[in-house]
Amino acid sequence: MLRVLTASQMREADSRTIEAGIPGLILMENAASRVVEALVEEFPNLSAERIVILAGKGNNGGDGLAVARQLLVRGLAGDLEVILTADPDALQGDAAANWRMLQAVGGRVRVAPDEAAWRVARGAAVRATVIVDALLGTGLSGPARQPAAEILRDVRLHCADARIVAVDLPSGLPSDAADAEGEVLDADLTVTFTAPKPCQVLLPNAARCGRLRVASIGTTAELLESLDGDRLYVSEPGDLAELVAPRPTDSHKGSFGHVAVIAGSRSKPGAAILAGTAALRSGAGLATVITAQGAAPAIVGKTPELMTLPAAELDDGSLGPDSIEAGWLERADVVAVGPGLGTLPENRRLVERLVAEVSQPLVVDADGLTALAGLDAWPRRTPTLILTPHPGEMARLTGLSTAAVQADRLAVARKLAVEKHALVVLKGARTLIAAPDGSVVVNPTGSPAMATAGSGDVLTGLIAGLLAQFPAAEPRRVVAAAVWLHGKAGEIASERWGERSMLAGDMLSTLPDVFRAAR
Question: CATH code at 399?
């Protein structure tokens, strides 16, 4: 997982890196080198492009000036021009040093410190095929002010044919916020330094960064992890290494855990099928679905590899508090409950009993969450509890409106995780995994096609299956990996069946592709 840094944490990281012995000028040089490398990879015939670098007066502008110099001295730019949106005399420190070095190598620069000067210089930007955005950096507070606001607006309106490569973050984005005020220059590619910023991993701002490339410029991973303050992370493919490693040759089904899925009813056997099958597809050695008697035949007929325990059912064909007999869960390593269970008072009492009595890690989803939302006080438990709400379910759990949940997903998920000492998976675009210690992981995978019935049931089974296989691993890491795999399976299924036609069950058939690709 990559740590995500706020603007203040980023300043602290840079300061401590400089104190450790790497001068700020070298950090700026390294940043420029990473941008040049990205440009070379992105544009195979870079010297044929008309490149304009927009440079402001701060360190972000200094990065842009260093990019211009490196392109020139390495002979990579045939048509390159810098538009400096500040008086050169106002530049300070490392930015001023890079201004002097750019002059020394004969860089072509237009100086446009105000709106009038910009209107003269903007013709160069309009003709550009590549614009390197080094105008505003992580120091921005509030909306962009003039002349930057006019520059961003003009580029947005009149430079539609140019590809935008942002240095550190697109100008106009507030580093720490999920949404922006005022003008923003949407990027095709963003090269950010040291660590992602909150605006680059949380929607809607994350979508304005284009493809995100995180570049190391000298700060160590140990230093990043030692920084105080909120702990926000983003999942990455490397998190899956342990989960997709080759299995020992002497493995047997008992080596990979047993999942018990308490789900389904006579009218909703599909939820149990999806959750149970996902547990097996995740690699769990065994999965038993404990379900209503009337649902069991449909489950076995669809996935014969699933074991079933048909339980006594209520008149409506669902499970009640006395349906689960003593001893049925003793052999399970992980228990999942909720999909297709029903919302009668009797169904709710079953969930309350399970939360209080189950000694294994417990994954609660769907109707199980509705049951918890109706309790005045939750039963206390020490084993791992994983809650997987969508925004509507989160609203019921917290007493907030769905709109309030969506307005501050990060804070809402973190608060519930800390209060209930649970892992909270707040589903949706950029699903969040919040832990009891207040840390939150942002999941970058997924597709709009996953907004369909049954997607959550697949995730429930996937989480339970991976937890059963890796009981010694940190639960937060396993759950975050399950969410990553689920999203990637949705992406592949969406490509195969289309956003409108994809079914949740289609993700079960793409999970093997995801596991193979992750090796």
Answer: 3.40.1190.20
